[in-house]
Amino acid sequence: MSEHEFNKPIPYQLHISDELLDLTKKKLQLARFPDEQIDVGDDDWSQGAKVKVVKRLAEYWSDGYDWRAEEARINAEFNQFKVKIDIPDYGPQVLHYAHQASPRPDAIPLLFVQGWPGSFLEARKIIQPLTNPPDAATQAFHIVVPSIPGFGPGDAPEKSGFGVQLTAHGFTKLMVEVLGYKRFVTQGGDWGSMITRSMALLYPQNVRACHHNFFPCRPPPWYKAPLTMGRLILSPYLYTKREMDSLKNMQYYGREQDGYLRVQATRPQSLGFGLGDSPIGLLGWLVEKFHEWMDVSHYQMSDDEVLTFVMMHWMQGATPGLRYYKMAFVEEGEASMKVAFTKYLSTPIGLSHFPREIMLPPYDWVSSVANEQFRREHDKGGHFAAVECPELLVQDLRDWFSSEIVKTAMHNEG
Question: What is the pTM of this model?
Answer without folding.
Answer: 0.95
